[in-house]
């Protein structure tokens, strides 16, 4: 499935049996799910290139937490950049991005989560490897979050 996902187009991957000629068989179509599924002890970060918005999703104590990170840039995060984020609820309507065809995904394991003062301290592996924080802040009398890499 991972190899098929790497070479897939929007229509998926068409696979033909090795011993059959193309004219004799219509092949099989495999279309991997474009949205990664999150399980216990894992995270995903899905980003739409056009807007820079990214959806950070992780599981803590059997609860799925989602944060919409504004103007996200991985290179800036790795160099100490901080990003404004809002808690996102999928019950408010589908994907925050509309179509999922143009999304890039990064994922890995959550090695440790500490909940503190309404925020989270995350120790992650994978593309976002390291210690990251999602901390509550107030801007313009509105409760939001700050997403950044810790020391």
Strand order of the largest sheet: 3-4-5-6-10-9-8-7
| Topology as a string of helices (H) and strands (E) | HEEEEEHEEEEE
Describe the main β-sheet briefly: 8 strands, antiparallel, barrel
**N-to-C span:** 37 Å
- Secondary structure: helix percent: under 10%
| Number of beta-strand segments | 10
Keywords:
single chain, 151 residues, mainly beta, two-stranded antiparallel ribbon, 2 helices, 10 strands, 7% helix, elongated
Overall description:
By secondary structure, the protein is mainly beta. The protein contains two helices and ten strands. It has helices at residues 2-7, 74-78, and strands at 13-15, 28-30, 42-48, 54-60, 63-69, 82-87, 103-116, 119-124, 130-139, 142-149. It has an eight-stranded antiparallel β-barrel. The chain has a two-stranded antiparallel ribbon with strand order 1-2. A hairpin with a 2-residue loop joins strand 9 and strand 10 (142-149). The radius of gyration is 19 Å and the shape is elongated. The two termini are 37 Å apart.
Give the topology.
Layout: H1 2-7, E1 13-15, E2 28-30, E3 42-48, E4 54-60, E5 63-69, H2 74-78, E6 82-87, E7 103-116, E8 119-124, E9 130-139, E10 142-149
Antiparallel strand pairs: 1-2, 3-4, 3-7, 4-5, 5-6, 6-10, 7-8, 8-9, 9-10
């Amino acid at each position: 499935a991972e190899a098929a996902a790497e070479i897939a187009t929007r229509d998926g991957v068409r696979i033909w049996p090795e011993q059959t000629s193309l004219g004799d068989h219509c092949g099989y179509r495999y279309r991997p799910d474009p949205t990664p599924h999150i399980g216990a002890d894992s995270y995903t970060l899905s980003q739409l290139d056009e807007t820079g918005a990214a959806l950070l999703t992780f599981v803590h104590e059997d609860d799925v937490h989602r944060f919409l990170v504004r103007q996200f840039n991985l290179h800036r995060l790795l160099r100490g950049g901080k990003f404004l984020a809002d808690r996102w609820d999928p019950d408010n309507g589908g994907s925050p991005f509309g179509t999922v065809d143009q999304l890039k995904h990064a994922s890995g394991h959550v090695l440790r989560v500490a909940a503190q003062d309404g925020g989270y301290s995350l120790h992650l592996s994978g593309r976002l490897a390291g210690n990251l924080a999602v901390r509550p802040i107030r801007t313009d009398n509105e409760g939001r979050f700050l997403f950044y890499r810790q020391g």
